[in-house]
Amino acid sequence: MSTTSARLAALRTRLAANGLDGFVVPLTDEHMSEYVGDYAQRLAWLTGFGGSAGSAVVLADQAAMFTDGRYTVQVRQQVPADLFSYQDVPKTSAAQWLAEQAQAGQRFGHDPWLHTRAWAAGTTALLKAKGAELVAVADNPIDAVWADRPAPSLAPIEVHGDEFAGQSHAEKRAQVAAWLGTSGCDAVVIAALDSVAWLLNVRGRDVPRTPVALAFAIVHADASVDLFTAPAKITPALSAHLGPDVRCHPRDGFEAALKGFAGRRVSADPQSCVAAIFDALDAGGATIVEARDPCVLPRAIKNKVEMAGTVAAHVRDGAALTRFLAWFDREAPKGGLDELSAAERLRQFRNETNSLEDLSFDTISAAGPNAALPHYRVSAETNLPITMDSIYLVDSGGQYRDGTTDVTRTMVVGTPTAEMKDRFTRVLKGHIALASALFPAGTKGVQLDALARQHLWAAGLDYNHGTGHGVGSYLSVHEGPQRIAAAWSAQPGGDEPLQPGMILSNEPGYYKTGEYGIRIENLVLVEPRQAEGAERELLGFRELTLAPIDKRLVDLDLLTPAERAWWNDYHARVAAEIGPLITDAADQAWLAEACAPL
């Protein structure tokens, strides 16, 4: 079972034994997570695909992979073309493709713990029109053939102190209970891992790079909570922290508990609660109220303690990144560096802060043509040397108790071409336009997206990813509901009004396939703004990320006076706030030059 071919054959044998003509394989877990634990990496095990978004459909005589524009190149590198066809999302989808292939009488399986109810209903309708059937399986057939599948993590759940959370979990539970009262509901199911972590002021180590614990929660109208997780994860310290109003139960008791709400109104978020949750509530006679998880918005709007924490984390992280950039600038021209060694050295600089808990995602360390892959992940097989007269892109971040960071810098080694400078400067101008924006309260991310793209558009260029995603507070590096994205983006979103306290990324880019890639990413905090004569409440962005941007890639002739002023003001802040943490003389000299006014 060491090859994709053998695994695919074993799955087909299992499907045939179960009377199924096909099976849908998503990349998620029982919580509809973007990033999942090793035990849930079914898509990667089956296909070899290592991206963070995708799905597959396996039929008896063919199979297909579904990815969006971020993974067009990567999927072709990792998934065998003789075994899977490549399907582009959103031009098609797993459900649409499956319906096109379906014949009358065929039965196709899906795991109801890995799909939303809306997906199951929509796919059922598409297949019914062809006389075919979508079948919910009790046991995932991939698990049956994945002999060495890892077990779910049993790492202890950790207390996230009020000194970092800024609010007790009793206060948060009371807020959710008040929401239940307003909604006329008796309970709400909390399935998203980051919502459970936020609600109870806990963190975990069950998912790489994301400090969450595998658990479900049911919050009741009296503000008490039933928490479902593996008993081995409950420590005396956690029990003391949770108190008597949070009752802990084995994780495998969750489905039975859902069936115990006969005659009562239960709220569930159709985005994060899988189909199996709705099925169990229905089976138990509950009245289901579909509504957004009540933790989502308050989790996104950081309180004063969380805002102060993320500022401190970014200063610390910015100093580590600046040390790396100075080191890289000295070492790369000598030769001998490659993507893996550069990523490891950056991790070491962050680790030397003595406060790093983990990286916030696998570092994108990309040289030359690999930088043209927006979500590239370096491996021993893809590792490239860093060569002269080329571009190196590093997208990285850290998880600290007081905040989560995410930053991208693009560096030139040697001399850039005129085209590289033009493209970099257009990306920079878009970054500055978004960073400088003033906008009325109620503005949505989708309304701001064009600010970051306008100078690329003017040259007939663009990038195929969102411009900004939300970021958690020692939680997920990708956090909703806020987002800055085009309406046509492969990842829909951006329709949540931005509010003070929200953290987002600002990361326009440009990618020339097979040659180089450019991205400039800072995290920003939404804050109130004032303007003379303003007749509406205004908002703007405060830069959280503090690290130099490579001025050697800037075409100064393309910058306006206002853009130059932004650059100079930003780098003056970098020098003032990062400078005191830079103690090495060579690094200090490099920082002074990097932050010198244009």
Helix content: 25-40%
Any idea what the CATH superfamily of the largest domain is called?
A: Creatinase/methionine aminopeptidase superfamily
User: Could you describe the largest sheet, including whether it forms a barrel?
Assistant: 6 strands, mixed
Q: What class would the helix/strand composition place it in?
A: alpha+beta
Number of domains: 3
Describe this structure in words.
- This protein is α+β, with helices and mostly antiparallel strands and 598 residues long.
- It has 3 domains: 4-145, Creatinase/prolidase N-terminal domain (Creatine Amidinohydrolase, Chain A, domain 1); 158-295, Creatine Amidinohydrolase, Chain A, domain 1, CATH 3.40.350.10; 301-590, Creatine Amidinohydrolase (Alpha-Beta Complex), CATH 3.90.230.10.
- Helices cover 34% and strands 20% of the residues.
- The protein is built from 19 helices and 28 strands.
- Strands 4-3-2-1-5-6 form a 6-stranded mixed beta sheet. Strands 12-11-10-8-13-14 form a 6-stranded mixed beta sheet.
- Helix 4 packs parallel to helix 5, helix 14 (304-331) crosses helix 15 (339-351) and helix 16 runs antiparallel to helix 17 (445-457).
- The longest helix is centred in the middle third of the chain and has 28 residues, at 304-331.
- It is globular and about 65 Å long.
- The relative contact order is 0.09.
